[in-house]
Write a structure and sequence with these properties.
single chain, 256 residues, 3 domains, 8 strands, 48% helix
C-alpha cells in the first residue's frame, strides 16, 4: 500500500514534512499559471492580418519611391543644363575652341541626352479588351516587356534615329524589363497603353512592321486574343532627352 499512495497523499506528506518546500511549489505554480494565461490573452488580442493595410502600405511606398525618382531625374536635368552652360562659357571667345560647342551638341544628340524631333512612326501596344474565357491564361491578353523590346529592336534595325517608350528615351544603357505585372523602362514604371515613338523615315519604319515575317507571335496574339498592335506615320515627333543615370564601368577603343 505504501508504494501506491495517491498524489493527494504524497502532496500532503510533502507539506507535512517540508512546509517551505510546499510553499515554493505553490508559488511557482501560481507564477507559471499567470504567465500561461497572459500569453494566451496576448495571442487572442493580437489583431488579425489586414491585407488592405498591406496593400495601402505598398502603394504608399511605391508612390514615395517614384516621387524620389522624379526628383532625382529633375536634379540630373538641372545639372546637365548647368554643365552645358559652363562648357559654353569656357569656350566663348577662344577661336581655336569655337567648334567644341557644336561637337558637344552633336555628341549629346547622338547619346540621347538632348531631345530629338522629326518625322517618324507612332506604335501603340495595349492589353486586350476582350472578356477572358474561364480557365484561360491571363498572360495571353497582356502586352509583355519582351514585345516592347522586339518592336524597338526592329525599329532600330530599320534605321530609327531616336526611340522613346511612354516618354522614356531609349539609349545605350536603357533597360526594358518586367517585375511582377509591372513593366519598367529605364527603371521607371510605365503602364498601358504603351506608345513607342520612333524618329526616322516613316515609310521605311512602317514597311518593316508590316513585313509578314516580323513580329509573328505578337501579330498572332493580336488576332487570337485581341491584344492591340497598331501604328501610324507622323510628320513631327519629339523624343525627349534621356534623364536617367549613365553608369559605365569601363570601355575601350573598340567600344566593348
Amino acid at each position: 500500500m505504501e508504494g501506491k499512495l495517491s498524489w493527494e497523499n504524497r502532496l500532503a506528506a510533502i507539506r507535512l514534512e517540508n512546509p517551505a518546500r510546499s510553499l515554493t511549489l505553490i508559488v511557482s505554480s501560481l507564477i507559471l499559471g499567470f504567465l500561461l494565461t497572459a500569453q494566451m490573452q496576448a495571442v487572442r488580442s493580437r489583431p488579425p492580418a489586414n491585407p488592405e493595410y498591406s496593400r495601402d502600405l505598398s502603394a504608399v511606398t511605391i508612390q514615395r519611391l517614384e516621387e524620389e525618382q522624379r526628383g532625382l531625374k529633375e536634379t540630373i536635368r538641372s545639372l546637365r543644363a548647368q554643365l552645358a552652360s559652363q562648357q559654353q562659357a569656357a569656350v566663348s571667345g577662344a577661336s581655336n575652341l569655337a567648334s567644341i560647342p557644336e561637337e558637344l551638341a552633336r555628341q549629346r544628340l547622338a547619346a540621347g541626352l538632348s531631345p530629338q524631333a522629326g518625322p517618324g512612326l507612332i506604335v501603340t501596344l495595349d492589353d486586350s479588351a476582350k472578356n477572358m474565357p474561364t480557365g484561360d491564361d491571363p498572360a495571353n491578353y497582356l502586352i509583355h516587356d519582351y514585345e516592347l523590346r522586339d518592336v524597338s529592336s526592329l525599329l532600330w534595325l530599320a534605321g530609327a534615329e531616336a526611340i522613346s517608350i511612354n516618354a522614356e528615351r531609349l539609349v545605350s544603357v536603357s533597360s526594358v524589363y518586367c517585375v511582377g505585372s509591372t513593366i519598367l523602362v529605364n527603371n521607371t514604371r510605365i503602364s498601358p497603353p504603351y506608345e513607342i515613338k520612333a524618329i526616322g523615315n516613316p515609310t521605311t519604319l512602317e514597311d518593316v512592321l508590316r513585313d509578314p515575317a516580323a513580329l509573328k507571335k505578337l501579330k498572332s496574339r493580336a488576332t487570337l486574343y485581341g491584344v492591340q498592335f497598331r501604328f501610324s506615320q507622323a510628320r513631327d515627333l519629339t523624343a525627349p532627352a534621356y534623364t536617367g543615370g549613365i553608369a559605365v564601368k569601363y570601355a575601350n577603343a573598340e567600344g566593348r
